[in-house]
Structures are given as structure tokens and as C-alpha cells.
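Subject: Interface between my chains keeps coming out wrong

I've been trying for a while to get a sensible model of this assembly. When I model each chain on its own everything looks fine, but I need the whole thing in one frame so I can look at the contacts. Pasting all components below, labels as-is. Any help appreciated, I'm running out of ideas.
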Amino acid sequence: MKALRNTALLSFFALLSTTAFAAGPAMGEVEKQPLNVAAVAMFLVFVAATLGITYWASQRTKTAKDFYAAGGGITGFQNGMAIAGDYMSAASFLGISGLVYTAGFDGLIYSVGWLVGWPMIMFLIAEQLRNLGKFTYADVASYRLKQTPIRSLAATGALIVVILYLIGQMVGAGKLIQLLFGLPYQYAVVIVGVLIILYVTFGGMIATTWVQIIKACLLLGGATLIAILALSHFGFSFEEMFKRATEVHAKGVSIMGPGGLVHNPVDAISLGIALMLGTAGLPHILMRFFTVPDARQARISVFFATGFIGYFYILTFIIGFSAIVLLSEHPDFFQTAADGTKALIGGSNMSAVHLADAVGGNLLLGFISAVAFATILAVVSGLTLAGASAISHDLYANVFARGRATEQQEVKISKIATIGLGIIAILLGIAFEKQNIAYLVGLTFAVAASANFPVLFMSIYWSKLTTRGAFLGGAIGLLTAVTLVILGPTVWVDVLGFAAPIFPSKYPALYSVTAAFVAIWFFSITDKSQSAQDEMEAYKAQDVRCQTGIGAEGAASH
Amino acid sequence: MTQDDLVERVRNHPKYQELIHKRSRFGWTLAIIMLIIYYGFIMTIAFSPSTLATPISPGVVTTVGIPLGLGVILSCFVLTGIYVFRANSEFDRLNNEIKEEVL
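Reply #2:
Try treating it as a single job with all components included. I did that and got this:
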């Protein structure tokens, strides 16, 4: 039981590190593989196609609205695809299928957690965001509050989330490419950095959107193909697949039930809050709602996104379970460690990739490798654009220039910011190559849920919110989340090497989100200033726009 | 018509009251159903894992947890679908009537 839990937790760290290859203990040493020609060729086709799209998009990117929001002209279906492309990372694909491969049923627990944020976004903030915002979620948070403090806070929250997420993606890209394509780590990191700078500076949101749509199609198509080919080995019977999996898996029938991944109810509640509210506080996801023409299309986006993401998680479940059986028939996928145990080459996170090889041969292996790289590119582009818009639209145009910057200046700044972020991403990718970054996704979701979401949510729903309450509440949520992660097991023990954590849980969201909401409430109701009165009075007009869309940003007419 | 007049006219419109009342009630109801489904699943895992590890019928390997877990995934999709269906028909119709009558 203890051993089972440890294995499951290690796999979970690997998953949490956004990229499947970040956490040291969960996988074998990453060795450089021989150059995979099919994989590299297919990846080059993807790069050529996306650069073509970037050129096409650059011809259509003239205004700030084009650059940040694709002119508001993306349809709900396209945006749903793009959201799925933005959200389904290489970590979810390789990490969750790897977790199912190792622990069976437990993999499903994380798929479910990662998905439930979407219905909540739909019911509570999707159309409201579209009606109130323009380019960034800070537009919504600061709608009736003071621009300088609220935008500074929101942009800080956005940039922290973007940078943390970027580190995981870059390190994952490097490791993945090393393993799949046989290219050196630094090459991969530089290739990703240069490509996203090209996509985002020249093609803005239009190029980013189409890169994400293409990637979503490739990933869903590739995973569907692997799942169908794998299921054909079991006569398309789930029962047959489960039966044979329990026969070959070391843990036998116990893989068909919960295996101790969730054992402490408080941790389970806290993790659920982080996944749900964190998803609703990711700046690159929130930004996608400004690319559709109206609230109606925003709803349609979430509906399709939920469907695609849910379908994708079901595929990873099938892939993980069938890999238990089908990989066991290929001794050449395993290596014997010094202590005599057999382990999958590249670690359990490589199970989906090995399965592609087992059911479809070298061509499918190459295809899936190329898709995994494309996946990282699409996610990194969305992150970079979100970070650049926080710098240019929030910090530069509305804080530094106090709304006096021209549109051209603003777009110019965001292009400079994109290049800056691309270079930072490359440097961080190289700096963190050998670091233990398992805590990063936990931290990212904790910050998104504790700093970004409460301020956004209260600005939409609570008429008595004031600037003081929003600023102090958001700041307290941010500090609490960061502090508790540092004092918790993933940083205090695993990174800093202390014997016991000061804060016992890996999941601080329950406490940090509560702290943020209580502080927002307290510092708002005790704010008796005249400006606080004006801000409460301004809620009426905001709410009418929020509810009806009267006065909302329309689509650009081209 | 000034901005303030417009805001007041919309707020005093009977259909506006109807719209926000119905929509917020519907949205929150679905959100609570989603939370109950999700935390129901998670709490069963935490407190009674053996329930989920029970085979769906004697002699088979598939356990109760598998259809339940996949059911939670499906319920996310179905609930968002229910919301979109009503919001894009009934709520949008009300909203358009308000806009036509006020603007």
C-alpha cells in the first residue's frame, strides 16, 4: 500500500510538473536517442505549415484588436478547438496516460479534476468576461476600480503564472526532444523560443489561434488513432482490456479501484479547488474569450472546449490501460536497472509514445513525437501572448502611459515584450534543465486560483468591492499561496532539503483562496472613502453591461 | 439619452429583472450540481474506496468506479450543453427583446 502510494505520487509529480519529463525521480535518466528521421520530417512539415499561417496572419494583423484578440472574429467552434489546444499540454497527454499505465484507475481522478473547471467557467464567468473585457482579464478586474493598483496586481499575477508555466514547458520541450528526436537539449529549447517569437510577434493572436487549432486536431487525431488501434487488440471490448491488464500488471486487480492517491479528504478538497479555480484564473485561457464576437459565441466555445478536453482524457485512459497489456509484449521497450528491476525506457510517461510504436510502427511513433513537440509550441505561444499583453496592455498602456499611448505604440511594446519573454523562456529553460521543478504546476495553479480568480470573480459579482479590497485581497492571496508552497513538502523538503515541511500539505489552495476572499471582503467593507462609494455606485452600470452585453466590445469589421 | 439614463432604463425593465433572475439561478444551480457530482466522486474515493473497486457484476473485472469516473467526465459535457442550450435560446431571446425595447 505504501509503495503503491509512493509510485502513484511520484507519477503525479511528474504530471504536475506540466511537462512529463521534469520530475527527476519518476523517470529514468533521459538518454539521447538516435535521430528519428520520420519524427523530424513530420515536425518540419508542421513548422513550415505554421510559419505559412503566421505569414498569412501577419497580413491580417493591423490593429491592437487584431493582435490581442484576432479582431474578435473567431467563431465559437474554432475558439473551443483553440482553447482545447491551449489547455491540453504534453503533460496531460503523456503524464495522465503514464499515470494510468502505472496506477490504473487513479489516473482518472486527475483527468476529472482537470476537467471540472470548465463547466464552472461556463456557468460563472465565460460570458461575463466577454461582455466586460477587451484584451486581458485585467480589463474586467479593473473595470470600475482604480487602474494603476488593480492592473499592476493583475498583470503581476498573470506574469507569475506565465513565467512558472513557461519554465515547465521549456524544460519539458528540451527533455522530450532529446528523447524523441535525438537532438541536444539546448537546441530544442532555442528552437521553441525562436519559433514562438516568430509566431507571436508577426502573427499575434490570429497565428496563435490557428497554431492551437491545428495542434488540437493533430493531438486528438493521433490519440484517437492510437486508441482505436490499441482497442482492436481487445476486440474493442473494455472488459477484455481491463481483464488482460489486471493479468499482467504487478498490482493485479487493485488497479481497477482507487489506489491511495487521494486519501486525505482535506487535501482532496484543496486540490479540487486549485484545479477548478486555477483553471479559471489562467491568463492565457481567459484571454481566449476576447477572440469571439459576443457572449453567445463565448458560451459555444466553452461547450466545445469541454467536449474536446473530456474526450481527450477518455483517450488517455484507454491509451494508459491498453499500454499495460501491449507494452508487456515488447521486452525491447524495457531496460533492466542496476538493481535488477525492469523499467520502461524513458519512464512511465513514455508509455503513450511506446504504445504508438507498438500499434503503429515507426511512422506512428514519429507522428506522435512531432505532435508532442507541436503541443508544446502551441501552449508556449498562448502563454507568451498572454504575458506580452499583460506587459503592453496593462502595465505599459494603462499604468505607465496612463491610457495616453497610441495603439501603434502599444502593439510595438507588446512585440518587444514577446521577444523579451521568448529570450527569458530560453534562458530559464537552460537554467532549469537539471532542477527539480515538480512543484511548479502546483504553484502555478495555486497562484492562479488565489490571486487572479478571487479578484476577477468578485469584480463581476460583488457590488461592494473596492480598489482597496481587491488590491489587498489579491496580494494576500498571492503571498499566502507562494509562502505555503515554499513551506510545504514540494519545496521545503524536496528542493531545499529540510527534513520536515513547516506547512504539511502539498495543496495550499483551500487556505490561500479563503485568505484572498476574506481579505477582499474585509478590506472592502471597511473602506469608507469617497472613491469606494463611487466604485460601488459604478457597479450598476457595469452589471448592466455584464448582463446584457450593451456597450461590449464588438468584432472588428474587416 | 445619457449613459446613466440608459442604465436606469435597462435596470427598470421588467424583462431585465426576469433575465438576471432566471440566468443567475440557472447558472448557480448547474454549478452546484457540478460541485456535488465532482466532490461526491472525490469523497467516495477518500472515504470509501472499496465501493468503487467493486465489480459491476460478479465474474467481471470492470469495476463500479470506471463507469462512474467516465460518467463524471460526461456530466461536465452534458451540463455545459444544457446551459448553452437554454442560454442561447431563452436567455438570448430575452436579452434581445430588452435591447430592442430600450435602445
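Reply #3:
Confirming on my end. The domain at 2-435 of chain A is CATH 1.20.1730.10 (Sodium/glucose cotransporter).
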